[in-house]
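Issue 218. Parser rejects a valid record. Input:
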Amino acid sequence: MRVDSELLSTIYTGRLQNLRLRAEECGIPKTGSVEVLRAKLICEEILQDLDLSWEGIQSMSHKEIGGVLKVFGIKSSGSHKERRQRLWLHLNFDSRRLTIEYLAEMSRDDLHEMCKNLELDLTGNRTVLMGRVAGVLTSQLNGWGRIKRSLRRNGIQTPIFQVPATESEAERTEAQRIVEISGGDFQSVPSTATLEDASDSIVLGIDKLESRAQGDLLTIQARTEDLERMVGTILRGHGGIWGPEEKELLLRLAERRGWPLTEQFVRNRITMVATNIAEVKGARMDSSPETSYAGEETESVIRRIRTKISEIDG
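Output the parser choked on:
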């Protein structure tokens, strides 16, 4: 994928007023939040040759859609269907407004249309359709709607979007990558942004959790640098691969060090943050199904869904 990295970087780091001026120059609506404007500008200035309609998204391969998600600066991992759902949501909604409360006010026809676009079952009454859409929003929580903090702060620091190399150059690059993966130490000093993002992710939504889980996560947050080093050590010993086996090993190592991991939600949160760190380090993600990391955070959202559904049925 050929991308103007310099132009994309200015969109990542641009402030709302500057993005509005740029949108006006491009002849596109300048309304909406800063993240909505970013998505519009990336469509208009960076990916203008791509068909990003629902049909266009459906026609993209797994690899292609992963590359597009990276251009938008949002989560790019997951199954093919999850990637399609995430991209469609990012292009069509403001994540701050598309809440459970918003869904509760939608008509059945609107919910039916959302289910269709999210590739969900279309049968059932309004309450059932709302529950299906809410389930997708919960599973995609924090994966779309806002670009990664490191991109907002620093823009593109490495040439992640490059012009394709010639065949001989590509072969040499691949050979070098294999050498680096098999012999690399994955222990380079992490950027401040990487550690900050990991630290913030550990305690995300902490105010909604039980006091015990709050205390456990705060304890682990103080060991963010240790977590980053543990991920690097595991990657070094496993040839740069990160998957279910590596996650289990991480948890065993953490337990031996006395980390408070009795709560399942805390365990899931740590493996989620560790996976993000592994991605930043350039790990090869195992294709095996990943463990869900929604945990208590998901249960909290589900409780809100049930409350709204009860109100509707009542």
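Fixed in the parser; the record now loads. The first helix runs from residue 5 to 13.
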